[in-house]
Write a structure and sequence with these properties.
Blueprint lengths: L9 E6 L2 H12 L2 E7 L2 E5 L6 E6 L12 E5 L3 H10 L8 E3 L2 E7 L5 E5 L6
Length: about 120
């Protein structure tokens, strides 16, 4: 019998401006800032659970925004969420339809790709 796959507990970002990225995810996605893990790591937890984001200081050698990751947030009403974000200064791209659900992409201030998707809510 195979052991159960380990859960994903965190996603780490190397960023130049930790407070700017923390404010972005707090403002647009409701993450709560927590410095209790380690002094050099800012932990952002979602009030709805799931894995947390760990913000780490990027060194001069890190090439920010060139990662091959995307953070996907489950959002039932894509257009309403996009409108709210736009009022708060975050512009998502075009909304795409795929197999009964919608999604749209944007980037955070560190150029990491983020997506909102209604896939879990597809009927």
């Amino acid at each position: 019998m195979k052991p159960a796959a380990p859960p994903i507990t965190r996603i780490a970002f190397y960023v130049r401006d930790i407070s700017k990225i923390a404010d972005f995810y707090s403002k647009h996605f409701g993450f709560i800032q927590d410095l209790s893990e380690m002094p050099c790591i800012l932990r952002l937890t979602s009030p709805s659970g799931g894995c947390y984001l760990a913000l780490l200081q990027a060194s001069k050698g890190h090439k920010t925004g060139q990662s091959c990751i995307k953070i996907i947030f489950d959002v039932e009403h894509i257009e309403a969420f996009k409108e709210k974000c736009l009022r708060d200064g975050l512009k998502f791209g075009s909304t795409h339809q795929c197999d009964g659900y919608a999604y749209s992409n944007a980037r955070d201030p560190a150029k990491n790709l983020i997506q909102i998707s209604s896939r879990p809510f597809k009927k």
